[in-house]
Structure formats: C-alpha cells, structure tokens
Specification:
two-stranded antiparallel ribbon, alpha/beta, globular, nine-stranded mixed beta sheet, about 280 residues
C-alpha cells in the first residue's frame, strides 16, 4: 500500500509539460512589467507621468511635450534616450504615393528603434508620445492620406499595427502609450428633420480603437485649473486587466506616478521595484 501511495504521489507531481497543443505555463520568473495607455487633453500631465516610469527610458517623441518637462527628471539622475519623429512634406507634395513614401520611411525608423529598445537589456521602459500621432503615421505610410479611406482597406493596416504593438508582450519591458482626447460627437435630427452632428459634452480618446484592448491598463489624465495648487492634476484608472477593483479609482496629484499605479496592479510588488 505504501508503494502504491508513493507511485500515486509521484504521478501527481510529475505533470506533463504539454497536452496536445497546450503547453504548461512556467512559474513566474521574469520581473513585473506594465503596459499602459494614458489619454488626456494637452497639458494634463501625461508626459510627467510617463517620465516617472522606471528608467532608463526610450522615449519616442512625436509631440513637443518632452521639452522642458524632462529636465527635472534628468537632474534627479534618470536616463532618458529620445528620438524625434516628424513627417515633413516638401512644399507642393500632395500625391498620395509620394506622401506614403515619406511616411513609410519614418514608420520603419520608429519600428526599428522600438524593436532595438525591446531587445536592449539596458532599457526598462518605452514611451510613445503620442500613440494618436503614431496611428496617423502608419495610415500615412500605407494610404498616403488620413481621410477618404474605405473601411475595408483598414484590415491589413490594423493587423500590422496591432501585431507590432503586441511585440512588447514577448519582453519584460514597460510600455507607456500616451494619447490625445477630443470632443465626442453624435448624430441627431434637428427641428427641421435634418440629420446634424452635435457635441455630447464628453471626450473620447484619439488613436487606434483597439489600443484599450491591447494594453493592460487604461487611464485618463486630467487638469483642473480651478483646484487648489498642488492638487490640480489627477489620474483616473478606467480599467485594469490584472486588478479590476482599480476601475474608477482617481489618484490625486501626489500619487500620479507609474510606481504608485504599478504597485496597485501588482500587489506583491512595492514601489522600489518601479523606480
């Protein structure tokens, strides 16, 4: 009986590494990481939040928000590698083929830089500022324009963009995607029976629509000019894949940091891991 019990115990502990096409997930071994999207209006604290993420940081700068903001972090010893991405069209160039070629060159440069950062053992966090403009870039690269593109043409472009963004999940890097917001519009019928557009009074994120599903956490950065000094900025967690209890949590200005959010997402970590 004792030998039978030992045999049963051994069979239980020696689990197969695969069953059909399913492979047994290994025990956690890599360090924690967080893939987050932060959207907000201009000057709402998005760049400041991104620069609180663990360094060294690889910062893909499509916007002008990095200038000035980064100085205080560099004085504190944070290492930030940056590159500026601008699609500059020569005067008179409007042909979609020519515009596409210029955009494609910049899109390929951006992808190569991000992939190099993903492979580098030095880089801890990658920031794209903004994802809204990155989405415009890939559309310019593939269509040579941003408007009057048929919906069925977006399939391959969506897949290319989505697959590229998902490459971060093959690494242990943090990824921060900053995004812009705009007024939300809806169609309505006026008193004359004519369909017109009107603002709903709400804001919506600008960028690829699938980004909120790709990232692990979505947040909105806000600035209230009428609040007390020192509490004008806030960050609302919209949703979180790992910890749904964080949905709707609003962090005040002194807690609007990557370390604070990451330590809430990963309860078994502490803020020192995210410095």
């Amino acid at each position: 009986m004792a030998m039978a019990a030992m045999a049963a115990a051994t069979a239980t502990t020696q689990q197969p590494q695969s069953i059909g096409g399913f492979a047994l997930l290994p025990a956690p071994g890599r360090r924690h990481r967080l893939v987050v999207s932060v959207a907000g209006l201009d000057k709402s604290g998005k760049t400041n939040f991104a620069l609180t993420s663990p360094g060294p940081i690889a910062y893909a700068n499509f916007d002008t928000g990095l200038e000035g903001v980064v100085d205080k972090f560099r004085k504190d010893g944070k290492q930030v590698y940056s590159n500026d991405y601008r699609v500059v069209l020569p005067p008179g160039v409007s042909d979609p083929t020519a515009v596409s070629a210029i955009g494609n060159k910049m899109w390929e440069e951006y992808k190569a830089d991000v992939r190099a950062a993903l492979k580098s053992p030095l880089i801890r966090t990658i920031v794209t500022d903004t994802e809204s403009e990155t989405w415009e870039l890939v559309r310019i690269a593939r269509f040579g324009k941003l408007a009057q593109v048929m919906p069925h043409h977006y399939g391959p472009v969506n897949a290319e963009y989505r697959n590229f963004m998902n490459e971060v999940y093959d690494t242990d890097k943090n990824l921060v995607l900053l995004g812009r917001m705009k007024d939300e519009w809806e169609n309505t019928v006026n008193a004359q029976g004519k369909e017109v557009g009107r603002k709903t009074g709400k804001l919506e994120r600008v960028g690829m629509k699938d980004i909120p599903y790709i990232v692990q956490l979505n947040a909105i950065a806000r600035f209230d000019p009428f609040a007390e000094d020192g509490n004008r900025f806030s960050l609302e967690i919209v949703n979180c894949r790992q910890n749904s209890s964080l949905c709707g949590l609003v962090l005040p200005q002194d807690l609007c940091t990557f370390a604070q959010i990451a330590s809430l997402v990963y309860m078994d970590s502490d803020e020192r891991e995210w410095q």
